[in-house]
Write a structure and sequence with these properties.
It is built from 13 helices and no strands. The protein is mostly helical and about 325 residues long. The longest helix is centred in the N-terminal third of the chain and has 48 residues. It starts with 12 loop residues before the first helix and ends with a helix.
Length: about 325
């Protein structure tokens, strides 16, 4: 009498894969939970200090909210927005903000690129220039403002001493004239924040293979031709990032103006955030200040979107050409 055959399940690759899949899924779930735990602290801070206040700002812009009474106050609708759009000081502060952006963005992009290219070409001592350019950026705005207020002090400041050494007659001071006060704030800002863009450009330059420059040099390309044909195209994304970040940072100017000129002389350097601060915490009208903040936010988003659209249109033209 023969024994019955023992039936065994095939142990092919598909079966092994199915058996191993539950363990892999449990591992992925564990890693996912760990990832969310690591993100939780940042998420809490993001909601508490950025997303939450932003939503509260939008809500209060439709109410007569004040710092001297609790609650949202009476419903105002679009009255706060209409008031801000009808105020001449709102438009002047917005123009001063755009003026500061025009003064600072081109130099901070061009100078950072030039200094990064020069530093990247050095075989020794790059650490010194990284430190020299980036060190001012880590200083607080109060320190920077005090330094440059001393430099622009009439008669006794370094700026007056330089004018005297060049045979010029020192004037009333860079920060004392409505025509030059914003230029003085822009100079201080360029000196302060140049290092950040410099580091971004230097990091982008070090990602470009040296072989490209060596091949171009063998073909007889000059330094300018190498920059035009290799450096600028390969740093296109870095330049886009630098310009966008710089525009947004310049539109949010507050510290330097408040500490160096306090919006003066008169209101010649009063920027949007200073007007918002005055309406919210001096006039105690948080609703109107929130409306002005929303309008400034719309301007910043609009400029950023326009900048991106122009960049994409230029890229499409290059591809088409």
């Amino acid at each position: 009498m023969t024994a019955a055959p023992v039936l065994t399940r095939p142990t092919d690759a598909a079966t092994v894969t199915r058996r191993a899949r539950p363990r892999a899924n449990s591992t992925n779930r564990g890693q996912g939970r760990s990832g969310w735990l690591f993100l939780a602290p940042f998420g809490l801070f993001y909601v508490a200090f950025l997303l939450g206040p932003t939503v509260w700002m939008i809500v209060t812009s439709f109410f007569n909210t004040s710092t001297v009474r609790t609650g949202l106050g009476s419903f105002a609708g679009f009255a706060n927005y209409a008031e801000m759009l009808g105020r001449s000081d709102f438009w002047s502060s917005l123009w001063h903000t755009l003026q500061f952006t025009l003064y600072t963005t081109p130099p901070l992009v061009v100078l950072a690129f030039v200094f990064a290219v020069l530093t990247n070409r050095m075989n020794r001592g790059q650490w010194f220039f990284r430190l020299a350019f980036f060190l001012p950026f880590i200083l607080p705005s109060a320190t920077i403002s005090l330094i440059w207020v001393f430099i622009f002090t009439p008669a006794t400041g370094l700026w007056a001493s330089l004018q005297t050494a060049l045979g010029m007659t020192p004037g009333s001071g860079m920060l004392s004239s409505p025509n030059t006060a914003m230029i003085g704030v822009a100079i201080a800002t360029i000196w302060w924040t140049l290092g950040f863009n410099f580091v971004l450009y230097l990091a982008g330059l070090q990602e470009i293979p040296r072989e490209l420059y060596e091949a171009a040099a063998v073909d007889g390309a000059s330094s300018w031709q190498q920059i035009k044909s290799i450096t600028l195209p390969l740093l296109g994304r870095t330049t886009t990032l630098v310009i966008l970040l710089q525009i947004i940072a310049s539109l949010k100017i507050f510290d330097q103006v408040y500490l160096m000129t306090n919006g003066g002389p008169g209101i010649s350097t009063q920027v949007s955030l200073q007007l918002i601060t005055g309406v919210g915490f001096t006039d105690n009208r948080l609703g109107a200040a929130s409306a002005a903040s929303v309008l400034l936010f719309i301007v910043i988003v609009a400029i950023a979107v326009i900048r991106q659209l122009v960049e994409r249109a230029a890229a499409k033209r290059e591809i088409g050409a």
